[in-house]
């Protein structure tokens, strides 16, 4: 644990709940039908949530190519990336895509949060800005996050919470990828380990990143041969595999801590409290992605 300027100790393990308290706001900006309609008015022809996720996040880095997207997203099937990058940039510029997403989502998000106490939304936005600004001093080795930082703050409370959700998600995700690289895991192997570690359905994770059954089976067999998984069903980590996966998670917490240190433990808990209220309001209008968000690995 580390301390903020007031000497209060911040527990790295609270960084994940803090992000998760607002992360569904990011998901809502990808899942919203209004966003899909706004993007398709640009001629993008996006009809898949996974593709909307890919294009809108990659757009923050500018008109990058396939290899850059593969490197920064880490666990997406290369065939999916090649099917939409750089083709999407030929139909609309990254700036046009991000503008269309924001203009479509802003009124939807504002309406969803209209029942909230405006003073609490303003407080949540302030906490989120503090965390996001602290994270933004830590861009080294975080290419996808750095692209998001370059977009700047929208300046309205509801949009600032959304922007912070994207910032803090990418900041944590880039740190997580650093641990995955150290452990020598490939993109699809990350999803297999994620399924075994968190007890999630492998089919859902594979489909979210457009991997096929054959790819999945090959990754499982390789991980079994390397001692990560037991050689039986269902997917189960070996003792060593679980220890190594827990190390990745703990190290990710530590690398994310810089964003939350200025809040102190009380500020982190208040962010979680207010974030959960905001997410509940999203759920009330069918916008919460909590039950179906993309894997947090990247």
What does this structure look like?
Helix content is about 65%, strand content about 0%. It has 16 helices and two strands. It has a two-stranded antiparallel sheet with strand order 1-2. The longest helix is centred in the middle third of the chain and has 26 residues, at about 155-180. It has helices at about 15-20, 25-30, 35-40, 50-60, 65-75, 80-85, 85-90, 95-110, 120-135, 145-150, 155-180, 185-200, 200-210, 215-225, 240-260, 265-285, and strands at about 1-5, 10. The radius of gyration is 19 Å and the shape is globular. It is mainly α and about 300 residues long. Residues about 1-5 and about 290-298 have low confidence and may be disordered. Strand 1 and strand 2 form a beta hairpin.
Structural classification: mainly alpha
Gyration radius, rounded: 19 Å
Question: Percent range for helical residues?
Answer: 55-70%
Give the low-confidence spans: 1-6, 291-298
The beta-strand count equals 2
Strand order of the largest sheet: 1-2
Query: Average pLDDT across residues?
Result: 93
Number of helical segments with 4 or more residues = 16
Short précis:
With 298 residues, this protein is mostly helical.
Topology of this protein?
Blueprint: E1 2-3, E2 9-10, H1 15-20, H2 23-31, H3 33-40, H4 49-58, H5 66-73, H6 78-84, H7 87-91, H8 94-112, H9 118-135, H10 143-149, H11 157-182, H12 187-198, H13 202-208, H14 213-225, H15 239-260, H16 264-284
Antiparallel strand pairs: 1-2
């Amino acid at each position: 644990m580390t301390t903020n300027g007031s000497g209060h100790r911040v527990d790295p393990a609270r960084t994940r709940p803090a992000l998760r308290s607002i992360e569904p706001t990011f998901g809502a900006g990808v899942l919203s039908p209004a966003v899909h309609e706004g993007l398709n008015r640009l001629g993008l022809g996006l009809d898949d949530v996974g593709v909307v996720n890919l294009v809108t996040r990659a757009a923050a880095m500018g008109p990058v190519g396939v290899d850059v997207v593969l490197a920064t997203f880490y666990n997406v099937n290369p065939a999916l990336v090649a099917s939409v990058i750089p083709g999407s940039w030929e139909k609309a510029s990254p700036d046009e895509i991000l503008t269309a997403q924001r203009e479509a989502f802003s009124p939807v998000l504002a309406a969803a949060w209209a029942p909230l106490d405006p003073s609490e939304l303003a407080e949540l936005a302030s906490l989120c800005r503090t965390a996001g600004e602290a994270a933004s001093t830590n861009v080294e080795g975080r290419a996808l996050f750095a692209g998001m930082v370059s977009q700047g703050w929208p300046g309205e409370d509801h949009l600032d919470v959304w922007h912070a959700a994207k910032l803090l998600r990418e900041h944590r995700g880039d740190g997580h990828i650093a641990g995955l690289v150290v452990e020598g895991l490939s993109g699809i192997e990350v999803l297999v380990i994620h399924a075994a570690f968190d007890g999630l359905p492998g089919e859902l994770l594979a489909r979210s990143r457009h991997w096929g059954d054959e790819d999945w089976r090959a990754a499982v067999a390789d991980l079994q041969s390397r001692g990560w998984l037991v050689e039986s069903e269902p997917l189960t980590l070996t003792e060593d595999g679980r220890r190594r996966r827990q190390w990745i998670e703990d190290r990710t917490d530590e690398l994310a801590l810089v964003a939350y240190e200025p809040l102190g433990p009380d500020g982190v808990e208040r962010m979680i409290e207010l974030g959960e209220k905001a997410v509940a309001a999203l759920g009330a209008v069918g916008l919460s992605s909590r039950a179906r968000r993309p894997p947090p690995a990247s």
